[in-house]
Amino acid sequence: MAAHPDGVGALFDDEGPLAGALGGRWERRLPQEWMARQVARTLETGAVALIEAGTGTGKSLAYLLPLASRLLEEGPEARAVVATYTIHLQEQLTVRDLPVVQRALGRPLTSAVAKGWGNYLCRLRLERVRQGQASWLEALEVETPSTDVVDRLARWADATDDGSLSTAPAGVGGDVWSLVAAHPDRCSRRRCPFYETCFYFAARQRMLQAQLIVANHHLLLSDLVVRREAGGADAAVLPPFRYLVVDEAHHLDDVATGHLGLELRRSALLGRLQRVARGRSGRALSQAATAALEDVRLVLDGLGRAALVAPVDGRGLESGVARTVRLRPGESSRWVPASALDAATDSLEHLASTAQRLAETLEVEEAGEGVSPADDRVVELRALARWAQQTAEALRQWTEAQDDDAVYWLEAGPSSELTLRAAPLDVGPVLAGELLGQVRAAVLTSATLACDGRMDAVRRRWGLGDRPTPGDFSVGERGESPAPESELLVEQEEDGVWRVVVGDAGAPSVVRDDGRVLECVIPSPFDFRRQALLAVPVDMPDVDASPYAEHLARLVADVARRLGGRTFCLFTSYRALAETRARLASCLEPYGIGLLCQGDMPRTALLDTFREAEGAGWVLLGTDSFWEGVDVPGAALSCVVMARLPFPIPDHPVALARAERLRRLGLHPFREDALPRAVVKFRQGFGRLVRSQQDRGAVVVADRRLLTRPYRASFLGALPRCQLLVAPAERIVREVGAWVAMPPR
Length: 745
Prior knowledge:
The chain is α/β, with parallel strands linked by helices. It has three domains: 5-110 and 428-483 and 505-513, no CATH class; 262-424, Fumarase C, Chain B, domain 1 (Orthogonal Bundle), CATH 1.10.275; 526-741, Rossmann fold, CATH 3.40.50.300. 44% of the residues lie in helices and 14% in strands. Strands 3-4-2-5-10-1-15-14-11 form a nine-stranded mixed β-sheet, with helices on both faces. The chain has a nine-stranded mixed β-sheet with strand order 12-13-22-16-21-20-17-19-18. It is globular and about 85 Å long.
């Protein structure tokens, strides 16, 4: 059977089911087959597998085929969740990969896509908007939709099968959708008159009947949080599932940190209180909301002023980036009086009790007029009561800052925005115990998980204990364990140019298994020695030196002119991006090369513009989100420039608190946390270049630390084997142009 490790290989034979399902697109990839065997083995033994599989492996089919086979073998009661980080991969799985799996296995597998409440139209809220009653409790801050827009929504609601935002008619913006979207706090469930035709609950019913559910990391962690708070599965976001696959898993602990933390945003908090104060719900509630609004604003304004003068642990204020200030136990009373904090929490609790009392009054006194617990007013009042009580508790928790296992800080934006945040320092026990420990088997996979050939860092962050030592064995042709180069060995030419082949991530696949957690590192099938050139300008100033920005702009401009555009430049901050943009515009315009910059338009639109022109005439500047999840195959993208090595911001409150915790545990913060995170992101940036067997291009790293610092071996050893060129910038520009122009061998 294909569900078992010994049988899964037959799926990938040249004349096998997958080849038949893909037809002319079939291309046998041994790493894909190796990964599928490990997935099948994990599902069979009930282990947790950490699988790194390089670009081009075909990870999605490598885990979907054995997973689907096992679900079909176990029957309709078996269910699995596949969670991705990006919408792009979620759509790829549902639109492209699952149909291939169905054809290859020759048996129907029920599947569904999981989306959050806000993705679905609420028929009741749409009806209220049509009646001019969009909200009884809160005054609207957006314009009432035009009759034409509402009528188009109504016609679409009668014709659509899924009622989700992705298929909504054109012209329905975010403001309009916010008035008609489903929301758990505004839903009366089975008591709603539209329950039988509700889009959200129809989608949930499809999930309950599906064996394979495609979700995203945020929904997966939302499900975990709801189960923790509700104490059971009744209120869960996802139905119970037996198997779990997390793709793009290097994001998992960061997403968990966000969901298990705390966030109070000034604009959202004051905005809702203001809407309730101006609503039509009656004098008592309006007065309670007004009092809470004044008391909470007093506290937040005081915190905002204090943030501007407090000693700063985090970043200074820059365009688009918040100034971060860490809060320690007992410090909040120095920023705002304790009496003001008490007044704010007390007034929020009074608002909660007032709303709850009004809901009970409506249920009892007006029952004779047909009012029931399903009445809109009752549902909204109970939701407001829960929100006000939870907000009071969160504000009190933040100001006390008593949890030693969490970090508390505030972010003061360049405008008047202020956000109070808290985050757990270690989400590992929750992930291991309440997520991975609740399924029969789990597979966590990504193109980048290891550092120095090991997964110690992610094991620790995911609560999976120390690295296993017994049971190392190869699943490829050779058995040696991958290890990074200990030194940078170079061949020096007469003109001072260094050339060498570096990188060891292309070493044979190695599995380490302790019977509980399986680690597997599988190389990319691409020939990076032929396809990729890594270049480091030896004459670049230090990244923190004042001349650096000017030299970087000149380097990017020279490369772009040589290639006619077709260049990405990746930054680690918006400020550096803005500085480079200001210098580049005048350098490129005379050559007909334009700039596409993150923030100018939506990310998808930027990439579509770049692809449609095949990159010619464009240079794209991006920060954090452009280091990964960007797929531009072919000649459209010929060069990636990394402005600097992507280390986490060392003085951000979360990074500082994590470092303090690791020191208390006797661990080295840089080696155990900052370096592995930087190496993973560096590898993600490198991975933007080669996306197919035919791609050819260069990665230019404008940061000499890649050559001079002791940690260079961790970065260079983490790359697939490729050619490294170390030379002056002028020589590198010529070599990059020649390399890109050279026909593949």
